[in-house]
Amino acid sequence: MAYSLYKLKFSTGLHIGKHVGGPSLDDGSMTIHSDTLFSALCCEGLKGNRIKQLYDCFESDRLTISDALPFYKYELFLPKPILFVRNRRQESSSALKKKFKDIEYIPLSQFNDYVQGLSGDMLDPDSLDYEFGVMVVETRNAIKGHPQAMPYNVAYWRFNNNSGLYIIVKYEDKEALSIFEDTLYDLGLSGIGGKQSSGLGKFTVEKADVPYLLLSLLNNEKADYQMLLGIALPQDSELDKVLDDGWYRVVRRGGFIRSETYSQTPMKKRTIFTLAPGSCLRGRFNGVILDLSHGRGDHPVWRCCKTLFVGVSL
């Protein structure tokens, strides 16, 4: 197995709904979860008759991907580990505790120092604070199907010139990687996320080397904990063992089925709950791909609950 890395540079805004449920047009997220990216790749692959090849590659673990995570210039960022290690200095300062709570991503170059600082000398939280872009909220008017214009808000993320998102891909062979790359490049032209009809979600792709430090974390399977880099869920029979003595957060995954052939009217996927990026477990697992259709559509609706891990050594 080998790894490859792709930087997504957005030429337009990006609208990705949050996973908390409810209306999401007037709010959003900066990053893209791995299951959302997989679904978008499948929709794009359908246009180029690559969907079966894509599914087979992910199902057989010839391809595995991370979330689309932020980068700033040459610095890559990882999810903040979900870990509890007692630190008296942080507990004694409510301001310090709040600063660390607000941080969602850790620079790769400072990741090991951050982990070591959980129980010792902590990093300055201001050194972990980066500006990737800004959330923009626009008011638009809905005309179709209304007797008069109905205003509504659309929120989208606008990245700074030096920022964007990156994806780590684990691949078994060059053929699988080529299928992924072709589909990702096409997806950049079509767009990802909501409001694509308004021009949002378009990006260019830049292939980059995987830094040695990141490779060492990806290959460190003997660390104290294994941290998820995306959305994942083990087999039911593995669940208790996987979660034992681990630290994790659960996120809700739902949404509408984005398919013109599934049914005549829009339908929602079955809602599930998965482990969140940043969850730290005692070991790695393969994960599952679930069919979240309702059994009455024209095709399966897959959600890929497989992702990559990095080792976290305390």
Describe this structure in words.
This protein has 314 residues and is α+β, with helices and mostly antiparallel strands. It has one domain. Helices cover 23% and strands 27% of the residues. It is built from 8 helices and 16 strands. β3 (69-72) and β4 form a beta hairpin. α1 (34-47) runs antiparallel to α2 (51-59) and α1 (34-47) crosses α6.
Based on the model shown, name its key terms:
3-stranded antiparallel β-sheet; alpha+beta; 314 residues; globular; 7-stranded antiparallel β-sheet
What is the gist of this entry?
The chain is an alpha+beta fold and 314 residues long.
Computed structural class: alpha+beta
Please state the overall shape, judged from the principal axes of the Cα atoms.
globular
Residue-averaged pLDDT, rounded? 86
Q: Tell me the radius of gyration.
A: 20 Å
Topology:
Blueprint: E1 2-10, H1 34-47, H2 51-59, E2 63-65, E3 69-72, E4 75-79, H3 88-92, H4 94-102, E5 105-107, H5 111-117, E6 133-142, E7 150-159, E8 163-171, H6 174-190, E9 203-208, H7 212-218, E10 225-228, H8 239-243, E11 250-253, E12 272-275, E13 280-281, E14 288-291, E15 302-305, E16 309-312
Antiparallel strand pairs: 1-8, 1-9, 2-8, 3-4, 3-8, 4-5, 6-7, 10-13, 10-16, 11-12, 14-15
Helix pairs in contact: 1-2, 1-6
